Amino acid sequence: MGEMVLPGVLTSAARARHWIVGELDNVPHEVAEAISVVVSELATNAIRHAGTEFSVRVDQTNDVVTVEVDDAGLDVPLPRTAGPADLTGRGLRIVSVLADRWGVRSDADCPGTVVWASFDLPDPEG
């Protein structure tokens, strides 16, 4: 499992997105792109809503990639309904469309919020 810790500043979302792509091993391009978008959205949420340092983690098996973003924020993230003129508020909706599964949990090792997303990998034989 790879991990990167980043400061809670806007440029960190792009750094997290770039880092995650380099951590993936033999992942189809379209899945890697979805993962990078999700990490960028989750990092942006950590920056905007918690305003704290945050961690990005990735774990990859033969059939699943799971990413996690944790921060010290105490609010539980919930999908919002953004209006057509709203500039923000679509991040978790994007995550729910791109990821096969996602959720929020508390972690005893990390006070705050952990948002995770999993992506199924296609069978290389199939």
Sum up the structure in keywords:
126 residues, alpha+beta, Heat Shock Protein 90, five-stranded antiparallel sheet
How is the secondary structure organized here?
Layout: E1 2-6, H1 11-23, H2 29-50, E2 54-60, E3 64-71, H3 91-98, E4 101-107, E5 110-120
Antiparallel strand pairs: 1-2, 2-3, 3-5, 4-5
Helix pairs in contact: 1-2, 2-3
Outline of this structure?
With 126 residues, this protein is an alpha+beta fold. 34% of the residues lie in helices and 30% in strands. The model has no long low-confidence stretch (mean pLDDT 87).
Can you characterise this structure?
- By secondary structure, this protein is an alpha+beta fold.
- It has a single domain (2-120), classed as Histidine kinase-like ATPase, C-terminal domain (Heat Shock Protein 90).
- The protein contains three helices and five strands, in the order βααββαββ.
- The protein has helices at residues 11-23, 29-50, 91-98; strands spanning 2-6, 54-60, 64-71, 101-107, 110-120.
- A five-stranded antiparallel beta sheet has the order 1-2-3-5-4.
- Strand 2 and strand 3 (64-71) form a beta hairpin.
- Helix 1 runs antiparallel to helix 2 and helix 2 packs antiparallel against helix 3 (91-98).
- The longest helix is centred in the first third of the chain and has 22 residues, at 29-50.
- It is globular.
- The model has no long low-confidence stretch (mean pLDDT 87).
